[in-house]
UniProtKB/TrEMBL annotation:
Taxonomic superkingdom: Bacteria
NCBIfam families attached to this UniProt entry: PRK07777.1
Secretion signal, residue range per the UniProt entry: none
Pfam families in alphabetical order: Aminotran_1_2
Species assigned in the record: Micromonospora viridifaciens
Family classification: Belongs to the class-I pyridoxal-phosphate-dependent aminotransferase family.
Cofactor: pyridoxal 5'-phosphate
Annotated keywords: Aminotransferase, Pyridoxal phosphate, Transferase
Positions of the Aminotransferase class I/classII large domain: 26-382
Cellular component, GO, one term: cytoplasm
Protein name as catalogued: Succinyldiaminopimelate aminotransferase apoenzyme
Amino acid sequence: LVARMRPFGTTIFAEMSALAVRTGAVNLGQGFPDTDGPPEMLAAAAEALRTGHNQYPPGPGIAALRAAIAAHQRRFWNLEYDPDGEIVVTAGATEAIAASILALCEPGDEVICFEPYYDSYAASIALAGAVRRPVTLRPAADGRYAVDPAELRAAFGPRTRLVLLNSPHNPTGKVFTADELALVAELCREHDAYAVTDEVYEHLVYIDAAAPHVPLATLPGMRERTLRISSAGKTFSCTGWKVGWVSGPRPLVSAVLRVKQFLTFVNAGPLQPAVAVALALPDAYFADLRDGMQQRRDQLVAGLTDAGFRVFVPEGTYFVTADVAPLGGRDGVEFCRSLPERCGVVAVPTQVFYDDPEAGRRLVRFAFCKRPEVLTEAVGRLRLLA
Ligand code: PMP
Ligand code: GLN
């Protein structure tokens, strides 16, 4: 194995899901819903499979899907992208992230990301031979994770090539505030840096969030320097489909396409018309998704609080983080490894998403994208810890 990949072992998600299977624990580790997405979408996929949409689709994705992606971004975010040249379909957001970094970074270029960061960021940065510059999100007195503006400013320098911004943020559930976004944009403009935005949780922002979801590309001077990434997995509860996309100005998207051709060439043909159908669902679908998930959030937050955790209430995503110290835990990895045996639940230690594990030493993440009865069962088991 090449040196640059040696630091990366099995992903924590695979490790923890395997642990859940082995122990029969309730799996609140890896984030995937336990119900299927909209029936219209599933029917469209079945129909496409039956009616001969089974050969290589076009490289950037089928026209109907690119048109639907453009229409969806116009409808929700007032962003205009030309389906012909400014949108590329990818194998999930994961490929979009990798292809964007590989397309934009020379070896030695610096990529600013916010830790705890989604694990594929570090690996994609390493594959490109680039260097990550993490800025740490820390829980403030109000329980919200916050960016230190001075730390963010100090991270920018002559080698900064791009900022990788994930909002709503996995694993913290943070939604970046207007001030934080404005500072990111200001620094990108000042340092002539690109932005790659991971917005896979764009539709999961809860009613009590300090700010609504605002794509960074909508800020002044940002559209021309931003690659905006999303995916069907979270919005349409089909994480196994791996249909994602990247939108941006023509020169950047064409650079991504150049790389993408040789990573996967094209993506799952019969799933593309189905995702096009899903993206065109009425607004009520998206509102119901959010409201349903918010109820689950509230259920799990209450359960974790009862069980004795210090809980950081998430404003978005389908994850909640908690400090295990009030339960006598000193280390999240140890805590999560023993949790199935202690009470039959699986969670993910978030320290593995920090360059400085000390910053997240005692933090663990639970996923609440599960049926209410599953959450009830999990909460009942977690009470055994008290
Ligand atoms: N980014 C973030 C922040 C995620 O949480 C996920 C899914 N876990 C992804 C990217 C990957 O998305 P996909 O499954 O579409 O590749
Ligand atoms: N995005 C999901 C999570 O954060 C799953 C990631 C994965 O399995 N690679 O749990």
